[in-house]
Design a protein that fits this description.
317 residues, two-stranded antiparallel ribbon, 70% helix, mainly alpha
Length: 317
Amino acid sequence: MKQAQLNGSQHTLQGKSWLQKLGGQYQLWIMVLPAIIYIAIFCYGPMYGIQLAFRDFDFSKGLTGGDWVGFKYFEQYFNSPMFWPTLRNTFVIAFVSILFGFPMPILLALVVNSIRSNKRKRVLQTTVYMPYFISTVVLVALLQIMLSPTTGLIDGLLKTLHLLPADTNLIGDPGSFVPVYVISAIWQTCGWNSIIFIAALSSVDSQQYDAARIDGANRWQTVWHVEIPAILPTIIILLIMNMGNILSVGFEKTFLMQNSLNKSVSEVISTYVFNVGVKSNQFSFGSAVGLFNTVINFMFLILANSLAKKSSNISLM
């Protein structure tokens, strides 16, 4: 009887037009309406300016008044001596950030989930969440103070322990830029990024833990056979989304950490767009470089999504 009623309701729903279905779920659409408006205005609206990358921008003629020049500014960037350095620097920072930064929230979530005392768990979570609320400007200022070659506390400690040569300048040394960038990013965002994994672990059925204990599984075996499979879909989805932003290295932090000593490794695509496109008033050139960056990100997103779908049948679409 229940099956017949369910089939009847599905048949009725399928027989309705999309407008009728929309009216039947108007409460849900009202809830998501602010998000739709936000995305339409601030995400899709600015896409009107993409044509600037294909025009010779003129202030007096506006966005659509300049002469159409096709791929002129793309070719200018590809032939520029800064093409490979900016592309290489962006890839290196993004790849190292994903390689070391992506697993850390997962490990932290597993550690937090293993703590049985609720009080200790809350203290640890609060402690690791707090750095996320430090602004980028303040974070970089802290790095410059703590890593100063003359008065820096961390710099002095590492040199005292002979972990760094006495003449090392962590702020200006090109070889130190990527490690400092990645380690500080992990420290700042690891706790906050672990929230979604902790939430996924909280949904694991307690009967699975009981079954693992009955089978004689130790803590590591429980993690590998119970907890990791439970959060694997979440891991894959977030990894796909991170791959879609592989060239979107944070502009603010990179720009603030950049100086004349480390610019050879800190000049990424986003800072290059600002330094050349905005400071030099080459808006069409900057738009072309930014659009190239977006296209590469989109290609990585599609590739990662396809590989995930073939290997694990988990994907965004």
